[in-house]
Amino acid sequence: MEAKLSHDSSLTEPLILDEKQNGLAPKLEEVESNFDYSNTANVSFFKTCFNGLNALSGVGILSVPYALSLGGWLSLILIFVIAIAAFYSGLLMQRCMDVDSDIRTYPDIGNRAFGYNGRLLVSVFMYVELYLVATGFLILEGDNLSYLFPNTGIEIAGIRIEGKQIFVIIVALVILPSVWLDSLSLLSYISASGVLASIIILGSILWTGEFDGIGFHQEGTLINWSGIPTAVSLYAFCYCAHPVFPTLYTSMKNKRQFSNVLVVCFILCTLSYASMAVFGYLMFGSNVQSQITLNLPT
């Protein structure tokens, strides 16, 4: 890969640029011109926000009350620490792509930093993470749908499939067509539905606590040191969208606005995660399950 970095691509440039700051403007214009040949670099600010929110605000929202119950009230500080670290690293990824128009993916950053071995290492970890996250989503869907519709099953060629397994298969078949979409502008509408689903989940929890006789009366514990490692891992799971950030960046019509996209996405998602954790813990205390939806009355 031919180096296109200039020696004055300074570390003194602010990470969040506005339209009046010119430090990286020439490099950004070069990056944008290199994507003019593609029809994919036409996604607006708001559509990118929806894609980013959907990537960040996933099913981790179901597990944050459980994480808080494991670590205690003080562990809530960790979700803000992790959010700040993830946000900062997202800005650094943007900076890498701003100063080198050859960088278009996460493995490209690894290659730029550490050569072929860096690309290989980043690729392996990235694809393993994406595979495990997708697998986790299917398992969570199977758990929740089998809880809502118990004793569901079908028989195919003499083989009986029921319970969680049938719902995992159904969900996989339903979401499979979405992987064939190559337009992030079109995908933003699906992302908007995902964001709406997260809002509905949070609203449902609040409604259940307020009007279904559960209330918000559990006190909980201040700190539980033995549960901190698990709590940290569950909080970190909520911010595992970094592999898609380069794709969101390269798809934008105005790449100068990507840092603002990160600000919007991280603030809104962190507020929703923290709200779900607090209200869920106040509702069920130490009895909250690994997915709060499993605590809800049917």
Automatic annotation (TrEMBL):
The entry's keywords: Amino-acid transport, Membrane, Transmembrane, Transmembrane helix, Transport
Principal subcellular localization: membrane
InterPro entries the UniProt entry points to: AA_transpt_TM
Mode of membrane association: Multi-pass membrane protein
One GO cellular component term noted in the UniProt record for this chain: vacuolar membrane
Residue span(s) of domain Amino acid transporter transmembrane: 43-297
Protein name listed in UniProt: Amino acid transporter transmembrane domain-containing protein
Source organism superkingdom: Eukaryota
